[in-house]
Design a protein that fits this description.
heterodimer; A: 497 residues; alpha/beta; Rossmann fold; 2 domains; globular; B: 316 residues; mainly alpha; ABC transporter involved in vitamin B12 uptake, BtuC; two-stranded antiparallel ribbon; 14 helices
């Protein structure tokens, strides 16, 4: 088989972190290579180097025999590299044809008028090929389904005479039939001799669609082997780099009385939720996207106004109308969106850590900057935040370290009840384990934790009890001894036994 | 050594502004023997005190990610109120107090529209600038008032050890604002809100109160500028500062404060004000045509922002 793409010894460092460390990748014509790795393993950086968004510090990219030390986005396109990102790129208010030929619309005459006829003609063939034949080239993209919008991106790649097609989590927004259709299309594309790099977290897809797997971990190349020689366990072991059991440190603490209780929480979407959390306990909230878990957390924390809600904390009724009141009552919240809700990227490491408890660093009502530095330093050391200095702006830290800042900020308020929303999303394995350790520490102090997570292994390992939500309702409460993936998943899709 | 390095690293925008100011001083110093005399430098100081005082308050609003284009109009209204009360024969200190209260009221008016009625700050202050200016004309039906009082004269033209009193007022304003931004919970909150509103809210910061206070500060600084203007001219008129509305904003941007908010420093603004004032003074000394002066001011502003944008894009 002949190689369509070779990436050799690619190296790329960002301030404070080596994202891609001397990674090799080979892609043959007509094959699907699954690129696997945990979040933060360096997959997306590698792909961005391939698509010309990042310039590698060193290494070589050989496409179709031509060698480059780096690519611009235009060069990458010209060389036939097309990337379909998880967040699709399309313009809702333009036609299908215009979207497919974005940036290469045919023109005619001295005034360079758009040649609509030619434009519509030239996309018809491509549309048939990718399975958009039932649509007209003049249809607005707005009316298409997500799956069809994805097909537009594939069609666009075809219009650029693609040789290397990268698909980043292409099935994350598709249902089962749409996924099957996409796989058929991938099979067709493969046959045309195009090389496909396929990124997905769904293990079962990998075995359905890929010929070969390359695994990355912590920015490094781990292995690449034909799918037929691998099992799911091999892949996971390669990605995690240790036995999965060790990932979740054990916790031994006595669970006490109920310290936090919510009754009759309702909003337009949430339907009469009641639940409780005991001292020293981690209570998991599991569910699919949009089940209402974040909304629940926001209501508890005063960031959203519910229609009705009663909170009883340590025996007394409290009301959290604003986040400030919630903080005063000893709640703290680590939001799911690190970059938009959790971390102030413009501010320094130090300023982020103390942000939720500025009063804690005042002396005679004025900020004590020296004391603030001590506080920040203590947390940064305790949480092992990797940063050149306390004054470094948060936006030059890696995702995992930013997340640690958010957690430090919350812990600095000395919370009695901590709400964690996807606390380990998008951070590397090492940092994950450190965060699990922290959660255990919090419990040992007899505080209570509510943890929202969409990762089954994580939530099962970390929780003492799990509430499962589906479409705004709590569909089940499961004790630790009864945890099974099947059970939780069934409850999450609303199959109440 | 590392300390020096740190200063340079943290300075960002201010540093390029400072370099630009230094270059201007060298050019004008070579071009005119009079430029670098103590007297002329104090002239620049007294000239910059109006724009400087206004811009100090504006800095706070812009650090929030907001804007206030109504300052010059509020300054004019403050000046007219000063004149009317002076004609009524009030005690000058009481008059000053009244005008400052007016600044608080005007600032609160802006703040109310922006935070409670949730109108975009640019649109809001564009509107209120018409309102303030209209009231300023209404007070005397456009008539100007001569002012002859030792207290006011001293504010505008008096000197302490050779340094103009108005320059001292401006420097005190900067020191207070610097101190407030650096050492108070409110000041830190300004940066938090400007950097990311959602994060600030979830951190338990009363973001509306922070924005409210900031617009009041901008209002107070505006009337202070108005007072200095009137005192320097020994007269007040409603059209005062008309057409200068963008000067304060230019100075703040020149000083390296990001339009997006959350980043910057009030001393940067002072340097920005220094650049614009030096330009006017120096070009007048070199007898540059007044229309060309405008063009050059514009070019300086655009190039400064351009240099800054280049650097920011390089960093990311």
């Amino acid at each position: 088989m002949d190689k369509v793409l070779e990436m050799k010894q690619i190296y790329k460092a960002f301030p404070g972190v080596v994202a891609v460390d001397k990674v090799d990748l080979t892609l043959y014509r007509g094959e699907v290579l699954a690129l696997m790795g945990e979040n933060g393993a360096g997959k997306s950086t590698l792909i961005k180097i391939l698509s010309g968004m990042y310039t590698p510090d060193s290494g070589e990219i050989i496409i179709d025999g031509r060698s480059h030390s780096s690519l611009t986005t235009k060069q990458a396109l010209d060389e036939g590299v097309a990337v379909i990102y998880q967040e699709l790129n399309y313009l809702n208010d333009l036609s299908i044809a215009e979207n497919i030929l974005l940036g290469q619309v045919p023109v005619k005459g001295p005034l360079r008028k758009v040649d609509y006829e030619k434009m519509y003609d030239s996309v018809r063939g491509i549309m048939d090929e990718v399975g958009l034949g039932h649509r007209k080239p003049t249809d607005m993209v707005r009316i298409l389904s997500v799956a069809e919008k994805q097909l537009i991106e594939i069609a666009r790649a075809f219009s650029h005479h693609v040789k290397v097609l990268v698909m980043d989590e292409p099935t994350s927004a598709l249902n089962e039939t749409e996924t099957e259709k996409l796989f058929e299309l991938i099979f067709k594309i493969r046959k045309k001799g195009i090389g496909i790099i396929y990124i997905s977290h769904r293990m079962e897809e990998l075995f359905k669609v890929a010929n070969r797997v390359e695994i990355m971990r912590d920015g490094k190349y781990v292995t690449d082997r034909p799918v037929s020689e691998m099992t799911t366990d091999d892949v996971v072991a390669g990605m995690v780099g240790r036995q999965v059991k060790e990932m979740y440190p054990k916790r031994d603490c006595r669970i006490g009385d109920t310290v936090f209780e919510v009754k009759h929480l309702s909003t337009g979407f949430l339907k009469d939720l009641s639940f409780h959390v005991r001292a020293g306990e981690v209570v998991g909230f599991f569910g699919l996207m949009g089940a209402g878990r974040s909304e629940t957390a926001r209501c508890l924390f005063g960031a959203q106004r519910p229609d009705s809600m009663e909170i009883i904390m340590e025996g007394g009724r409290i009301e959290n109308r604003t986040p400030k009141e919630a903080l005063d009552h000893g709640l703290s919240y680590v939001p799911a969106e690190r970059k938009t809700e959790g971390c102030n990227l413009v501010m320094s490491v130090k300023d982020n850590i103390t942000l939720s408890n500025l009063r804690g660093i005042t002396k005679h009502r004025l900020l004590d900057l020296k004391y603030e530095r001590e506080v920040a330093k203590r947390w940064a050391e305790k949480l092992k935040v990797k940063t050149p200095a306390l004054d470094t702006p948060a936006d030059s830290l890696s995702g995992g370290n930013q997340q640690k800042l958010v957690i430090a900020k919350c812990l600095n308020t000395d919370p009695k009840f901590l709400i964690l929303n996807e606390p380990t999303r998008g951070i590397d394995v090492g940092a994950k384990v450190e965060i699990y350790d922290l959660i255990n520490d919090i419990c040992r102090d007899n505080r209570a934790v509510m943890m929202i997570s969409s990762e089954l292994p994580e939530i099962m390992a970390m929780s003492d009890r799990i509430y499962v939500m589906c479409e705004g309702r709590i569909t089940g409460e499961v004790e630790k001894k009864d945890f099974t993936q099947e059970k939780l998943m069934k409850l999450a899709i609303g199959e109440v036994e | 050594m590392s300390k020096v390095k740190n200063i340079f690293k943290n300075a960002r925008g201010e540093l390029s502004a400072l370099i630009m100011l230094a270059i201007l001083w060298i050019i004008f110093g070579v071009g005119s023997p009079y430029f670098l005399t103590f007297r002329n430098i104090m002239n620049i100081g007294s000239y910059m005190s109006i724009m400087g005082t206004l811009a100090a308050g504006l800095t706070v609003a812009m650090l929030l990610g907001g804007l206030d284009v109504s300052q010059y109009a509020l300054a004019a209204l403050g000046g007219m109120v000063l004149g009317v009360l002076y004609e009524a024969g009030l005690n000058p200190y009481l008059i000053l107090l009244c005008v400052v209260v007016l600044g608080i009221v005007g600032g609160s008016f802006n703040a109310f529209i922006i935070t409670v009625m949730k109108v975009n700050p640019i649109i809001c202050t564009m509107g209120t600038s018409f309102i303030f200016r209209g009231f300023a004309y209404l007070l005397t039906n456009g008539r100007y008032i001569r002012i002859d009082d030792p207290v006011f004269y001293f504010i505008g033209n008096g000197r302490i050890a050779g340094v103009p009193a108005c320059l001292i007022i401006m420097l005190i304003t900067y020191t207070i604002i610097w101190y407030v931004l650096k050492y108070t919970v409110y000041g830190r909150s300004v940066f938090a809100v400007g950097g990311n509103l959602t994060v600030a809210k979830l951190a338990g910061i009363n973001t509306n109160r922070v924005r409210f206070v900031s617009h009041i500060l901008a209002g107070i600084c505006a009337v202070l500028g108005g007072i200095i203007t009137v005192c320097q001219a020994s007269s007040c008129m409603a059209s005062q500062g008309y057409g200068n509305d963008m000067n304060g904003i230019s100075a703040v941007i020149l000083g390296g404060i990001s339009m997006a908010g959350g980043r910057g420093n009030v001393w940067g603004t002072l340097i920005g004000v220094g650049i614009l004032s030096t330009l006017v003074n120096g070009m007048t000394l070199l007898e540059v045509n007044a229309y060309w002066q405008q063009i050059i001011q514009g070019l300086v502003l655009v190039s400064a922002v351009f240099i800054d944008a280049m650097r920011t894009s390089k960093r990311s």
